[in-house]
Amino acid sequence: MDRGLVGSGSRGRLRVDVQRHGASAVVKPAGELDYHTAELLRQPLEQCVADGLARLVVDCSELEFCDSTGLNVLLGARLKAEAAGGGVHLAAMLPVVARVFEITGAEAVFTVHDSLDAALIE
User: Fold this and answer.
1) Is residue 67 a contact partner of residue 100, using CB atoms and an 8 Å limit?
2) Any idea where the STAS domain is (predicted)?
3) CATH number at residue 38
4) Is the residue at 2 inside a domain?
5) Angle 75-79-109 from CA coordinates, rounded to 5°
6) Long-range Cβ contacts of 36-41 (<8 Å, 24+ apart)
7) Are 11 and 40 in contact (CB under 8 A)?
8) Domain-embedded: residue 53
9) Is residue 68 a contact partner of residue 101, using CB atoms and an 8 Å limit?
10) For a tag on the chain, would you pick the N or C end, based on fewer CB atoms within 10 A?
């Protein structure tokens, strides 16, 4: 397993796509979100808020793993988005990822949706 630095072989373990959907940014991480890949998600989340898109919808449908570092990235994004008048909405979490949020109690501080469509209509 590659445990290199961000920018090395680790980059292939997490892909992040960002699309604008009205007043929201839809951020879609795919792969493993952990200590080695967290910066790959932190940067686009912070850039969205800096660009005035404070309503962040994180499409978790292809997020296969999330550890405490990944959770902290999302919590940090939530604070920045809320400070800018928005928030972070999590959509379509796979059970393995949802379990991390359940165990830590983090699901209570995010708006969680069953699907991306549900997150976008609110």
Assistant:
1) yes
2) 14-122
3) 3.30.750.24
4) no
5) 55
6) 36/3, 36/4, 36/5, 36/6, 36/10, 37/6, 37/10, 37/11, 37/13, 37/70, 38/69, 38/70, 38/72, 38/73, 39/6, 40/6, 40/11, 40/14, 40/16, 41/14, 41/16, 41/70, 41/73, 41/74
7) yes
8) yes
9) no
10) N
In a domain, residue 4? The reply is no
Q: Residue 47 domain-assigned? A: yes
pLDDT mean for each 10 residues of the chain (122 residues): 37 89 96 96 97 97 96 97 97 96 94 96 78
Domain count, the chain: 1
Q: Pull the structure tokens for residue 113.
A: 């949706």
Q: Return left, alpha or beta for 105; rule: phi > 0 is left, psi -120 to 50 is alpha, else beta.
A: left
